[in-house]
Amino acid sequence: MSVTKPHHNRLCRLLGRVRANSRRCYVMKTLFFYSLSCLLIAFQASADQRVNWTNSGFQITSPGGAFSFKLGGRMMWDVDSFDGVLNRSNDGSRRLRNDLRRSRLELGGTAYDDWKFTFDVNIKAKAGASNTHLHAVGVGYTGLHAFDIFVGRTKEPFGLEELTSSKSISSIERNYFTEATDTDSQPQFGIRLDSNGSGLGWSVGLFNPAGGPKKSDGNNRIAFTGRLFGAPIDTGSKTLHLGIAFTDRNIDRPIQQKGFALDVAESGGKLDSSWLTIDSDRQWGVEGLYIAGPFSLQSEVFVKKVGGANGGPDGDVHHYYSQATYSLTGERRGYNAKSGIADMIRPSADGWAMELVGKLDHIEWDIEGLPTQAVSGYLAGLNLYPNKNVKLMLNVIRVTSEGIATADEDDAGTVISTRLQLAF
To answer: N or C of the chain: less Cβ packing under 10 Å?
Structure first.
């Protein structure tokens, strides 16, 4: 029997709907079984087991404390408005977009004090498509005196703001360098060692970068990343944190890479630099954080050097940012000296907390013999904390660019971003 063109088109549409429904069903099944497993564990808790609800999640502890189970999550919804160079495809007119930036279930626990596990799932569905993947998953051992070990999918130890949880960063978007490096993505897998003592801290690991090409012999590419940090001042009222980091992405064959690909507003507003074919990628970072009562000052400087492949030109990315915050209600930013990572302010039980944010961000992409491409951002922000689980954010950013827009396009733009965040 022959298939006419109308029948063929109807068949294609039917198959398309089946595929879309299959993806949606996969998301729903993932959510169902994940939630069911959590509920079964909760219902199995006996009278002897401690069941606690805290600001950071739901926790069950076995008799004697040998086992613990913790369930948490976060949801972040962004609404962005942007114009000018950020919307060049529509003649720079103002555009409004929204995005469910993060929707994550976080499962973790401990066994016999020294063993821990992490199982975090990102669920993000779009019209006609779906995206469900593991964010962080693995097993850790904390029984050694000198250091802790974690094997699995976790962050590489590179960059103070990148290591700070998305729940705790002071601006809606992290600094621009996170869009110029693949260390901001969770690797496919890794082995990470973290110091387990006071004073000078360190973290090193071997990681298989997410989305990175394989080596020339077909094996997985393994990057080396390390960080050294410390807090020479860490009292109840003041903290001074300093750190350095390095990573070698271990590229052994030519690949194409942009100097940076910025999403100034994640739901839109892209600013991409030119491409370069490279065969090496090494990056350095210096970080600093000062906290004094309700005031904090945070800054980082990054350099990324890439080697041109096949005798081509080399390229450099230079980046810096400085961020100042001030709590109008007097709260102090948190800081974990063991991990060298900052935290957000926590409102008291009496009412709301309010925080002002100012940020300067600048990144440059230099290729030998070609004009520099650069982006600068000037951010003013307000964060509101109705309680310890809800956070409301407003960012207004003026963006200027160099060498990206054409002569008849605007080279600047303004972003107004808002976020509703729920975390537990």
So the answer is: N
